[in-house]
Write a structure and sequence with these properties.
The complex is a heterodimer of chains A (310) and B (295). By secondary structure, chain A is mainly alpha-helical. Chain A is built from 14 helices and no strands. Chain B is mostly helical and 295 residues long. Helices cover 70% and strands 0% of the residues of chain B. Chain B has 13 helices and no strands. Chain B is elongated and about 75 Å long. The relative contact order of chain B is 0.17. The chains are: A mainly alpha (310), B mainly alpha (295).
Chain lengths: 310, 295
């Protein structure tokens, strides 16, 4: 367990260090970052003033050292459009993103269970049984934003059943959540289905059947056995969702952290873009760490083997 | 963005692989023959006939909000996704394969350093990283290609490295080494042929990832810029016209879907043929590699 923890934490620290270093290098790649942090069209003396205020005129090594502390404490230059600390603006939007991601994740998990049991519980059956899996295969070949646009077209414009932008009513979350869920569903459904098949082929399932257990009960026990890998993928996809939110939130103007990055970019509010993306990247790394630690709790084998050989 | 596997045993790989190859060929032909096939200039505006429905005014697929011919734009629009996708796959594939060869062959500290680097790369979210690079590192096609390649190389690296680690212990490699054959010759003639198939499979599947990423970033406004015809950009431009002129956004998306499905189907078929099948399936997708639980 200790070994597993140490390895995992070391990777997290490395990843955070790598990400922040990349941010730092990008910021300084074009000379003085104050040029981007100041409003577009600022006179040179204004930029120089800001550069001094933000400490961009100090030696690079010194800036590099203090950059980590500042970034991890959420200290970024003020947002130009909101006139307040950029990280505050980002955090105000966090709730909407968490809501959207949770709904999408729950929906994807439910759909994966249904599809997995439907296609995995029985051998044979051909296209009549396999078609949901084909649909899943199709889904992963369609760009997320295109799924979103198609949903807007069908359910928002042609049928006019659901709102297509913003977060005005309770049903606003449906279309973006479905779009986001489509991105997570394929790996989930597949891992559950494959494991269910595997479990059904194991001796305990055969014994159950031989003893006269109903098919539904055998499948239920096999489903418990397939939960662990499914939960792992679910957790991993929770991290991946953060990346997906940028595109999906933009399609539906969902007022979350992802859409904020893109609107800030369009408004040339670079301090806000910087704070937003740094926040999302660090959040991604941390979510993945938590999932891995949870996995160690769920599966004792990980703790005892040091989580290395697997 | 996830990588594909064939759903179910009943999915006949022969037919699927052929379909994939045909779809890919179709998209390549569209891109190459665009100047011959396009009925109009993809940039020529006709403000008298904006948002025309498919089939009217001599526009087989209709026109967009500026009266530009959609068929012509669809044909030319294949070029950027295909070019960026292929270049990104070539760059990422080359880097990943070379580093993987070195890492697996040299072992020791170079292997440690490169492996940790790949771990870090995989631990970072690719789309967010790309947004960051494109915002603060400059927006251009070259940067777009590089950033997509950057998020793709670890897949090749891991596969090639583990295969080379295994090949190194084989008698014919040992024989070359004890005879004092130059290192580069061992790499080139003993090890590279052993990983070629694996790399080809990974590259085909990686093409779909690269195209999806290019399209997503372009949709967000960080790829090709208006008025250039590009499928991702065309969907974004058409989104405002869904009410009344749905074809503007829907048609170019179909091109993207054809390209990605083509790459996925063909990649699957190739993966199914070689012995690289299991490795490619489990390692291409980082979820499965990081904690492979399905085994």
């Amino acid at each position: 367990m200790i070994r597993f923890l140490v390895r995992r934490l070391a990777l997290t620290v490395l990843a955070v260090w790598g990400a922040l270093s990349a941010v730092f290098c990008l910021l300084h790649s074009s000379g003085d970052p104050a040029v981007m942090m100041a409003p577009v069209g600022s006179p040179p003396e204004k930029v120089a003033q800001l550069s001094h205020a933000l400490g961009y005129d100090r030696p690079l090594a010194e800036q590099y050292a203090s950059f980590f502390g500042d970034a991890l404490r959420g200290h970024f230059p003020d947002s130009l459009t909101f006139q307040q600390p950029a990280m505050d603006v980002v955090l105000q939007r966090l709730g909407a993103t968490v809501l959207l991601a949770s709904v999408a994740l729950a929906g994807a998990a439910a759909a994966a269970l249904l599809i997995g049991v439907w296609t995995g519980s029985r051998e044979g059956g051909g296209a009549r049984r396999e078609w949901p899996m084909w649909l899943v295969f199709l889904t992963q070949s369609v760009p997320g934003f295109y799924i979103g646009v198609l949903l807007v077209w069908v359910f928002g414009v042609e049928l006019a059943w659901l709102p297509t932008s913003g977060a005005t009513t309770a049903t606003s979350v449906l279309l973006p959540a479905v779009t986001l869920a489509c991105g997570v569903l394929p790996p989930l459904a597949r891992v559950f289905r494959d494991n269910l098949r595997g479990e059904l082929a194991r001796p305990y399932s055969r014994t159950g059947t031989a003893l006269g257990m109903s098919r539904a009960r055998v499948v239920r026990h096999a489903a418990y056995g397939s939960m662990l890998p499914t939960v792992t993928v679910l957790g991993l996809e929770a991290g991946a969702l953060l990346g997906g939110t940028v595109i999906v939130e933009s399609v539906f103007s969902w007022p979350g952290v992802g859409q904020l990055a893109i609107t800030a970019l369009q408004n040339q509010d670079y301090p806000l873009v910087l704070a937003d993306l740094t926040f999302l990247i660090i959040a991604f790394v941390v979510v993945n760490l938590v999932v891995d630690l949870l996995y160690g709790v769920l599966d004792p084998r990980v703790r005892h083997q040091g989580g290395q050989s697997r | 963005m996830s990588h594909p596997r064939i759903p179910g045993r009943r999915f006949r790989p022969g037919a699927a692989g052929a379909t994939g190859a045909v779809l890919l060929a179709l998209v390549v032909l569209m891109a190459l023959l665009a100047p011959v096939l396009a009925p109009h200039d993809p940039l020529a505006q006709d403000l008298a006939h904006t948002d025309a429905a498919p089939g009217v005014h001599g526009h087989p697929l209709g026109t967009d909000q500026l009266g530009r011919d959609l068929l012509s734009r669809l044909l030319y629009g294949a070029r950027t996704p295909l070019l960026v996708g292929v270049l990104a796959v070539v760059c990422g594939g080359l880097a990943g394969t070379l580093l993987g060869l070195l890492s697996g062959f040299a072992r020791g500290w170079p292997d440690q350093v490169l492996s940790r680097l790949a771990d870090v790369q995989l631990a970072l979210p690719s789309v967010l990283l790309a947004l960051l690079v494109l915002t603060f590192g400059g927006q251009s096609t070259a940067v777009l290609v590089l950033v997509i390649a950057l998020t793709g190389w670890p897949a090749y690296f891991r596969l090639v490295r583990s295969r080379v680690l295994a090949l190194r212990t084989m008698a014919y490699v040992e024989a070359s080494l004890t005879q004092g054959v130059a290192t580069w010759r061992v790499l080139r003639y003993d090890l590279l042929p052993g990983v070629r198939g694996l790399v080809a499979v990974t590259a085909t599947l990686d093409l779909s990832r690269a195209v999806l990423m290019e399209a997503g970033l372009t949709y967000l406004g960080l790829g090709a810029q208006a008025p250039a015809p590009d499928w991702g950009l065309m969907v974004a431009e058409g989104q405002g016209q869904l009410l009344g002129a749905w074809w503007i956004a829907v048609t170019p998306g179909l091109g993207l879907v054809a390209l990605v499905i083509g790459a996925n189907l063909l990649g699957e078929r190739l993966a199914g043929r070689g012995e690289g099948r299991r490795a490619a399936r489990s390692t291409v997708k980082k979820t499965v590699t990081a904690r492979s639980t399905t085994a």
